[in-house]
């Protein structure tokens, strides 16, 4: 309409001086539009009772051929022309207005937060608002004013700032505010932008009132570390130097790779305390939707675990960092979560599990933090079955060879075996070796029985705790018949107490049986006749002294405890009954299984008592202590143990469902006694 085309010229007051030429053109466009509207209205009145003088004047006007059309068509054409001129006028007006707004916005940026310019700041804000509202409609003006970064210091709508929690909005004192302002000025640009975006500002440069920014930071203290890292990477990428063709794209690609690497490093640190059996598991891993099921249960607020971050992808599943509120038994938390998830989806519960664990903390003020680990409820054994079978076969063969070798220093036995071999080669008939089997088989049976009882105790206790174990793998050794039987946990124990019981019972039974076999075998050594005694296997004094407890027991029973046996030359052979030899070897084997390193039975006990973090520290101290001992003593069994351990048992155990509550005091005392006993058995006398 004509009133819209002839819009208010008040805005010209802002353009006077430097925009005269534009104003002149604008007035000309408006006048042309008004004239065309008058002509259009007049033309539309042909034949409709309009004044004859007007019609006659227009009829006498020479009209070009292209305008010789019906009155209605002519009126339509003129209206379109008037509308086009109106649009051009508005474009010119808006172009000048936007440019003026940009200039005012720049002035606002330059002002920042200087107190002496506070009055000028308000004047400029008023000028901008007045200019915008005169230039466009009310709705458009409100939208423009809300999106101008420098006009308003309110947080960006996209940032969605979170309201401060109760107690977080403490008002800063004047001294605290000055300290904060001084600190902010010393921060690098990417850090400033990160902090600004964390509370909703587009960038640090968009902030007008720094005091308001500091107050926002003070009131919003629940921003997650993950969001801050993401904002920092974006801010760092924006502040990279550009100008070279492709340089900015390459830089952003590098920053993306850096962000990914840092994120993997962060998640990797969180999973450092878990074995490869968990981290590298790719079978039945939960998805993000599966993790959200747990997060939704926590969001209901009916559990005593407060999540601080959303589920984060890690090797083997997802973790949800947070804080466990110690208002009840932590196993009750797991039961509560299981119960709620079971109501939502029984299929989820049949495939996955939630474990309350401790992980390394990203906060420098604390070593570790609570987290929920969402993982499959079954952990596969990583070692190929063919490899386990091959290693077991080698260990069994080496065990038989070792036991036969215990007779190598007995000249009587060696002569009789040579004679038997010679008769067999000459075809002299069937060779009778029953006498030798009567000596060898008891030794093998005692060794096998001790280890069989060891493993049976493990599986029985695991069955009572509803934990599944893998088939055992026998580990070979150079200085012993075998090193140990290794099995893996395929499902998680309920808590550390269950893990301790499963780990403790095996070595306890095996060590008790071996000790009784040693004592009984020593008694048989003293009571047999001389003809039988001359066929006994033997152990050198140097090997007997590698066990302080075992060597002392042999010396006490056979020599009266005065060191008559142990003080002899290390190469001197001490004949012993086969049962005594097997008992002595079994004591060392089961004692090594109690050493608190990695995932040995002693390591599982240590993890149950100390937790993952402190077990890792304690395990490292024990490992290096044994390593030093191998240089100061002639203990081949310790050296072989460290070698095999480095390849097979250096990982920690799979997570328990509840790892917040450690094993109780009686179990801790039991573990200490076991470790002292193991040290007495494997530490040499000299």
Could you tell me the radius of gyration in angstroms? 44 Å
Number of strands: 9
Low-confidence stretches: 1-18, 42-67, 149-168, 241-251
Please describe the biggest sheet, giving its number of strands, its sense, and whether it closes into a barrel. Answer: 5 strands, antiparallel
Distance between the termini: 112 Å
Continuous helix count: 27
Shape: elongated
Kindly state the mean pLDDT as a whole number? Answer: 77
Helix content: 55-70%
The computed structural class is alpha+beta
Please report which band the strand proportion falls in: under 5%, 5-15%, 15-25%, 25-35%, 35-45% or over 45%. 5-15%
Question: How would you sum up this structure, described in words?
Answer:
By secondary structure, the chain is α+β, with helices and mostly antiparallel strands. The protein contains 27 helices and nine strands. Strands 1, 2, 3, 4 and 5 form a five-stranded antiparallel beta sheet that branches. Helix 6 (118-135) packs antiparallel against helix 7 (138-147). Mean pLDDT is 77; it is low at 1-18, 42-67, 149-168 and 241-251.
SSE order and pairing:
Layout: H1 2-5, H2 12-15, H3 20-44, H4 52-60, H5 71-111, H6 118-135, H7 138-147, H8 174-185, H9 189-198, H10 210-219, H11 225-238, H12 247-270, H13 276-279, H14 288-299, E1 305-307, E2 312-314, E3 317-324, H15 330-344, H16 346-351, E4 352-360, E5 368-376, H17 385-405, H18 411-425, H19 434-464, E6 473-475, E7 484-486, H20 496-527, H21 530-533, E8 538-540, H22 541-544, H23 548-559, E9 573-575, H24 578-592, H25 601-632, H26 636-648, H27 665-682
Antiparallel strand pairs: 1-3, 2-3, 3-5, 4-5, 6-7, 8-9
Helix pairs in contact: 3-5, 5-6, 6-7, 9-11, 11-12, 14-15, 19-20, 19-24, 20-23, 20-24, 20-25, 24-27, 25-26, 25-27
